[in-house]
Amino acid sequence: MTMAEFISAHSYLIAQIFGFTAMGLAILTYQFNKQKTVNVMLMVVAAVWCCHYAFLGLMTPIAMNVINVIRAFVYSCRDKKWASGRYIPYAFCAVAIALLFFTWESVWSLLPCVASIFAAVANWQKDTKKLRILTVPVCVCWLVYNAVNGSIAGAANETFTLVSIAVAFFRYDRRSISKKTGS
After folding, report:
1. DSSP string of the chain?
2. For the purposes of burial, counting CB atoms within 10 Å of the CB of 169, is it exposed (0-12), middle (13-18) or buried (19 or more)?
3. Residue 183 has pLDDT above 60, yes or no
4. pLDDT value at 156 more than 90
5. How far apart are CA 150 and CA 147, in angstroms?
6. 68/62 Cα distance (integer angstroms)
7. pLDDT digits (tens, 9 = 90+) for 96-155
């Protein structure tokens, strides 16, 4: 058996290995204390997701994760004039829509695009509560897309992220709501 035949015969398994690797790296990302390291890790995570989706043969999520790599870099440079403009998230939204047209596979391709649009806006937020709220539709879109397209690792990742957001809501946001209402 040649290497190409092996890869072809085991592409689904290889895809899941890449996916669970990306998930593990994503969890590890937030254990770093330096913003620059976190952003580098986010770029690596998105690149590994690209490999995952490549082995599944899914072009739209590859394109959206390429955007994620670039967006993590640009957002990490937000303190520089060229990367601080209010238009930056909208530019990433426009690129996501444009790439959707080039990578269209089915109506399901809309979900990673919508997720990318929400992520562009969510990750631009300085308020962590807004970031969490805007990340929920990102996760829901990816969860459904991954479930439909056989990405076990992707579905697990989004489920884990939604649970994490729910925990954060109860730890932080619920208290702030209670303080405002006097409960």
Report:
1. --HHHHHHHTHHHHHHHHHHHHHHHHHHHTT---HHHHHHHHHHHHHHHHHHHHHHT-HHHHHHHHHHHHHHHHHHTTTSGGG--TTHHHHHHHHHHHHHHHH--SGGGHHHHHHHHHHHHHTT-SSHHHHHHHHHHHHHHHHHHHHHTT-HHHHHHHHHHHHHHHHHIIIIIHHHHHHHHT-
2. middle
3. no
4. yes
5. 6
6. 10
7. 999 999 999 999 999 999 999 999 999 898 888 898 899 999 999 999 999 999 999 999
The alpha carbon of residue 142 and the mean position of all alpha carbons in its chain are separated, in whole angstroms, by: 8
Identity (one letter) of the amino acid at 114? V
pTM value > 0.90: no
Q: Tell me the one-letter amino acid at 113.
A: C
| 82-85 LR contacts (CB < 8 Å, sep 24+) | none
- Distance, CA of 99 to chain centre: 16
- Please provide the DSSP assignment of 39-59 as one string: HHHHHHHHHHHHHHHHHHT-H
